[in-house]
Amino acid sequence: MGSLKDWISSQLVSMSLVSSRPLSGSDSFFREEPSHEGFDGQGAAHSNTSLTPPILPDTSPSVGSDQENQSNPSRQHVVVENSDQLRNGSDKKKMDPLVRIDDLQVKFLRLILRLGLSQNNLLVAKVLYRIHLATLIRAEESDLKRVNLRSDRARAVAAEQEASGQPEMDFSLRILVLGKTGVGKSATINSIFDQTKTVTNAFRPGTDHIREVVGTINGIRVTIIDTPGFLPSCTGNFRRNKKIMLSVKRFIRKCPPDIVLFFERLDLINASYNDFSLLKLITEVFGPAIWFNTILVMTHSSSALPEGPDGYPVSYESYVRQNTDMVQHYIHQAVSDSRLENPVLLVENHPQCKKNITGEKILPNGQVWKSQFLLLCLCTKVLGDVNTLMKFEDSIQLGASSATHVPSLPHLLSSLLRHRSVISPSGVDIEVDESLLSDTQEEDEYDQLPPIRILTKSQFERLTKSQKKDYLDELDYRETLYLKQQLKEEYRRQMEIKLSKEKNCASNDNSDGQQASQEAAVLLPDMEVPPSFGSDCTAHRYRCLVTGDQWIMRPVLDPHGWDNDVCFDGISLETAMQINSNIFTSVAGQMSKDKQDFSIQSECAAAYSDPSGITYTVGLDVQSAGKDTIYTFHSNTKLRKLWRNTADCGVSLTSFGNKCYIGAKLEDTISVGKRLKFVMNAGQMVGPEQVAYGGGVEATLRGRDYPVNNDNVSLTMTLLSFDKEMVLGGNLQSESRLGRNLRVSVNANLNSRKMGKICIKTSSTDHLQFSMAAAFTIFWALLRKKDVKSTSHE
Ligand SMILES: Nc1nc2c(ncn2[C@@H]2O[C@H](COP(=O)(O)OP(=O)(O)OP(=O)(O)O)[C@@H](O)[C@H]2O)c(=O)[nH]1
Ligand SMILES: [Mg+2]
């Protein structure tokens, strides 16, 4: 059962109920002995039998995906113990994992300094953030108060220790290399040490036995275990490859590596690449947990770029992304889990590889790959050690059989409390309809407008700046009124159809069939598919037609598919039907199936509106979660228009595995005028031996031009209680149009655990506005940074 703590952090950081990713490598796979830093006590108690990977809800891109450059500078917090604890005796220090995490961070920052890397480096920030998150998740309520945001102090201690060289740092890396023969494992080892430490061979397998290569880089002792390469995966080589893997497994049993490098040649990955059987064999022999500490190494990274469909070479970034995605895709298939995201390291071993002025080998994108190698190894090892210290042994496991996700009560309750508005078959929200109806005084406003002369482009150009503005404002105003009028007419038309249908039903005169057949088919926009179908046609098109209002059926595009044949492995379907004047139903779902997996997400609902104003809704939601399926049956009763008040009560029954969760909620909506709305709700979710309670108040103020412009501000306060813990949260959401070409939406939340996030989205058709938005964002980030600094000084 997920805890409230998980729920809070996922509210902040994760997209979905089941989205989780490894913090880093699994020590459970490798470690039988204490790590090289000598973490003794509880933290070093590794188990090599369990495959439980240490997993945290993830918020950031993979450690190594340097293509993704978003990071949140405000989250670069370091968890540092308070000074009392720092001064405490070594015994206590040894016992307290939080203190040891603090030490580890200082060590990590020292190494970053030693490598000459900036501490604001994206990867470093991510590692520090993940450590912070791990500490928060694992910390007890009492510990949480001790978790200070004193990043500056950790940095200062690291700088001080590194300058004085005291205390001496015993940090070492133990790395295992794996990959097919000839991909450049030995050549990479030689490049890393800048000397020929192991033999390479261009024409036949170069390495015939496992051997350790030891050296020192930037004061870090590095041991690399060079292994014989695997033979290309075909049935004849299966036994030989297995033999190599078993001997490697035997070799590392006594002294397991911190990091695994899995090698591929970047230039040899193409549409016909398929190393699934080899990856599967690695997974079987070493266990799925091997992939947690694995970095994908792509050699030959400076090779000539292939031609794109337009005859020009493709861009380096997209070439790398496409090829690494393909290898990652097959790893996902081998472990039957697509959550894994391995860091990628690009390598070029050619002696004539381009170098920068300091003589370091650089890639076509200007990156110095050797420092990137060290950084990735450091990050992987440090996160691995944090995992061990924090004991993430009860986290999610990799693999299909183990990919069972237990829904948490706070999640289920908050989704029950989420407001569901019932959509009528015409596609217009009932609430919108009502606000239109109440809008009678503006009835003829558009028709009463004086005529306007529409200017040609050249006439418009001749206007002065202020005239241009007035003219555009006037057009804007008219457009809003026109759209309002159109919406009203559409609503009236729908009502008339409804009334005439009722009459027709009475007189048994059904002309529906003819009407439907008269409706023309509409072509839906094309989907972009990988341009690899057929020899002469670069982009084969799949076209979709919509023939009636009622059914929309489309294939689902898999963005990871490498050919059109495997791109479409799902289907989505949407329909809404009026059974009679009072009953309507809607079904929306998506289903995908390939050789291994079948997944479905669907929502069906039926609503009955009583003429007295009561609406009854029943529905069934079906959702795949790993190999299991979650069924949720829900039922709602809505009492409309008791004064300006809509009351709603609902129950839900969720079945997952062999467990059942029952929930109930009460909700009341009060409208004050056309623009202000209050929603209050309270609910309860009961699971096996556990209960969660929650509720909230939401106030929404809509813009003057609603529903033509969806400007609104809403403020929500929620309270959630689960397992003797209570969390109060506040959320502010606003969407508004600032000027003609700029839309801004702001979402900010904060809870009583002092965790929160702010998200600002802007869209503009004007470059100037974009630069303003960027300037504002940077200004905001700086402000936050200052804020964090002053907090840490306190
Ligand atoms: N151009 C180029 N050549 C490379 C690169 N990496 C390796 N090579 C060459 O590829 C050949 C094979 O490299 P090795 O390092 O022996 O390959 P290996 O993976 O160790 O092979 P086994 O020991 O048989 O498993 C050598 O001639 C290397 O010089 C690279 O990044 N670019
Ligand atoms: Mg070799």
Automatic annotation (TrEMBL):
CDD domains associated with the record: Toc34_like
Xref: InterPro entries: G_AIG1 (IPR006703), GIMA/IAN/Toc (IPR045058), P-loop_NTPase (IPR027417), TOC159_MAD (IPR024283), Toc86_159 (IPR005690)
Annotated compartments: Plastid, Chloroplast outer membrane
Main localization of the protein described in the UniProt heading: plastid
Membrane topology: Single-pass membrane protein
Protein keywords: Chloroplast, GTP-binding, Hydrolase, Magnesium, Membrane, Metal-binding, Nucleotide-binding, Plastid, Plastid outer membrane, Protein transport, Transmembrane, Transmembrane helix, Transport
Cofactors that this protein relies on: Mg(2+)
Composition-biased stretches (Basic and acidic residues): 29-39
Polar residues bias spans: 59-75
One matching Pfam family: AIG1
UniProt domain AIG1-type G: residue ranges: 170-401
Disordered: annotated span: 24-92
Protein family per UniProt: Belongs to the TRAFAC class TrmE-Era-EngA-EngB-Septin-like GTPase superfamily. AIG1/Toc34/Toc159-like paraseptin GTPase family. TOC159 subfamily.
Protein name: Translocase of chloroplast 90, chloroplastic
